[in-house]
Amino acid sequence: MAKFDSNYFGTRRGLIRIVMIIIGFAISATLCGNWFGGRSCFNEARLGGVSLSNSIFIVVNIIIFILAILSMGNYSFERLVSLIGAVVFGICGAVMVWYVIQDGFNHNGFLLPTALVVVQFFLFLWDWQILRGEA
């Protein structure tokens, strides 16, 4: 039987997970709101990959958060997700920077999601270090 763990909200990992979920929704809102008048987040190949990756990790972060507050967390799975998330958001950050530079900074609307993707990379990296006992 799962037991509700309210102490998880006060831990560094709990706060990181909450911030990752909020930033994930902010990335989706800014990307989908700026692309093609908000019609579709997945029309442009490079930015569509970033949006898809972000959407997947929003769902994964919510699932991990729910399992953690129900004291059903699996540290090895969370560590793997954090490592994969750091790699994926590192690549997504590079793609976003590449897109912004190639576009010639014509769309200021892409600067905020680019910065948020880089922040997500560092949050996943920090979470991975916490789960490895390094931070």
Task: Write a compact overview of the structure shown.
This protein is mainly α and 135 residues long.
Describe the protein in words.
With 135 residues, this protein is mostly helical. It has one domain (9-132). Helix content is 73%, strand content 0%. The protein has 4 helices and no strands. Helix 1 packs antiparallel against helix 4 (111-132).
User: Could you tell me how far the N terminus lies from the C terminus, measured between alpha carbons in angstroms?
Assistant: 31 Å
Counting helices, strands and paired strands, the structural category is mainly alpha
Count the domains.
1
Rg result? 16 Å
Question: In terms of topology, how is this protein built?
Answer:
Elements: H1 12-34, H2 45-69, H3 75-102, H4 111-132
Helix pairs in contact: 1-2, 1-4, 2-3, 3-4
Question: What would the keywords be for this entry?
Answer:
4 helices; 0% strand; single chain; mainly alpha; 135 residues
